[in-house]
Amino acid sequence: MEKLPELENILVAIADRKSLEIFCSIAEGIGESDKLKCERGLSRKQYYSRTGRMLRAGLIKRRRGCFLLSTLGVIVYQAQLEIDSGVKNYWKLKAIDSIEASHNMSQQERSKIVKTIINDEKIGNILEKRIEANKLQ
Taking burial as the number of CB atoms within 10 A of a residue's CB, which of 22, 71, 127, 133 is the most buried? Predict the structure, then answer.
């Protein structure tokens, strides 16, 4: 019986920059070993240890000599894109934190500020859910 992947193993598998680059390249359709190895400037051992971790974590699979994302890998890749978007919007998010900390405002005012500052729909939705959850408390 196959063992369930653990969150820690998933995060460790893509934790360093080179591993994350390999993972993203596979997600973008570059799954041939030679291309992945050459483009990243990795030794054979570095490449296989990284892809091995991703295979064991259940993020990727091999089909006909090429790597592709597993269904779990697709979910993790989408989450990684959201995190990347959050990082790109870091200063806007910091501004929202500062405004919220310095003003006693209603949920409606918070929502309006989020919609004004944040252009990314997914991040906006996450923040709106947070505002709604705080309303219930």
Answer: 22
Tell me if 68 sits within 8 A of 26, measured CB to CB. yes
Crossing angle, helix 90-102 and helix 71-88, to 10 degrees? 60
Q: What domains, with CATH codes, occur in the chain?
A: 7-76 (1.10.10.10), 89-136 (no CATH)
Which residue, chain included where needed, has tokens 């091995």? 52
Give the model confidence (pLDDT) of 35-91 as tens digits: 777 677 788 898 899 999 999 999 999 998 889 999 999 999 999 999 999 999 999
Give the other-Cβ count within 10 Å of 112's Cβ. Answer: 12
Measured distance CA(137)–CA(132) in Å, rounded: 9
Secondary structure (H, E, C), the chain:
CCCCCCHHHHHHHCCCHHHHHHHHHHHCCCCEHHHHHHHHCCCHHHHHHHHHHHHHHCCEEEECCEEEECHHHHHHHHHHHHHHHHHHCHHHHHHHHHHHHHCCCCHHHHHHHHHHHCCCHHHHHHHHHHHHHHHHC
Q: Are 117 and 92 in contact (CB under 8 A)?
A: yes
CA pair distance 110, 105, nearest whole angstrom:
7
